[in-house]
Design goal:
It comes from Salisediminibacterium beveridgei. This is Sortase A, LPXTG specific. The active site is at 179 (proton donor/acceptor), 241 (acyl-thioester intermediate). Pfam families: Sortase (PF04203). By secondary structure, the chain is of the alpha+beta class. The chain has a single domain (2-257), classed as Sortase (Sortase, Chain: A), CATH 2.40.260. It has 5 helices and 8 strands. Strands 1-2-3-4-7-8-6-5 form an 8-stranded mixed β-barrel. Residues 79-111 have low confidence and may be disordered.
């Protein structure tokens, strides 16, 4: 009898280990959906004055960026050598759109989180959830944060530094980064399933922005020309590592605004 008890314990232990990632993903998906729902409630209760002020700040930032774009900070660099070697990585100087946010790649993105939050707060923008993304084909809803440091990407989708803030309008190109799945979170794991013609939505306090996929491609981390602002265009690109479980390349899914 004791022998069967040990076998049962071992079986249940193995079953729990096997089911843990799946159950954890379900729980995290629920929390993502709850976070997004709470964000919508916040938007609904936002005073019109605050909504207008936020829109003006976003538009002002995006206009500055359109005339003075110095490049991008790849959110998935794993060491300082990578962070300073990309040919199109942001030249982090006083001309950068984040001129008063002194990002230092030598200290790593994690150490810069407080500076990012201070920069956003000083400009009247929340350092928490700013928007959300919905990808119907993947049954995916996730919060969007401004900035794409490691702590941010552990919580959801991040707006890549050097790209437009989510808000739409001509001469904007928002780049949204997400992990290619984590042990207990799906994230952008199935982003490679998106095809030309598929649609995704970005929700801000100003309303819904819908984008139709017009192209997908795989690049090396420093090949960022496809992420540049295109004159007169309203674009959003989803970015993740590629292939699955590898950090060697970047998968890009490009969308153009349809409404």
């Amino acid at each position: 009898m004791k022998k069967y008890g040990i076998i049962l314990i071992l079986f249940m232990t193995g079953l729990m280990i096997f089911l843990y990632p799946q159950v954890s993903r379900m729980i995290n998906d629920y929390f993502f959906a709850s976070s997004v729902s709470a964000l919508y409630e916040t938007f609904d209760k936002m005073p019109e004055h605050d909504r207008t002020q936020e829109r003006e700040l976003v538009d002002h930032y995006n206009r500055q960026l359109a005339t003075n774009n110095t490049g991008f900070i790849d959110p998935f660099f794993t060491d300082t050598e990578d962070a300073t070697s990309g040919e199109s990585t942001a030249e982090l100087n006083d001309n950068n759109a984040y001129a008063d946010w002194d990002y230092n790649p030598e200290t790593g993105a994690d150490d810069d989180d407080s500076q990012r939050e201070e920069w956003l707060d000083s400009h009247g923008l929340s350092s928490g959830m700013f928007a959300s993304i919905e990808i119907p084909k993947l049954s995916l809803k996730m919060p969007i944060y401004l900035g794409a440091s490691r702590p941010v990407l552990a919580k959801g989708v991040g707006q890549v530094e050097g790209s437009s803030f989510p808000g739409g309008g001509p001469n904007t190109h928002t780049v949204l980064a997400g992990h290619r799945g984590m042990a207990t979170k799906e994230m952008f794991k199935n982003l490679d399933r998106l095809r030309t013609g598929d649609v995704f939505h970005i929700y801000t306090s100003d309303g819904k922005l819908s984008y139709r996929v017009y192209d997908t491609n795989v690049i090396l981390p420093h090949e960022t020309s496809a992420l540049n602002i295109q004159r007169g265009k309203d674009l959003a690109t989803l970015l993740t590592c590629h292939p699955y479980r590898s950090n060697e390349y970047r998968l890009l899914v490009h969308g153009e605004r349809i409404e």
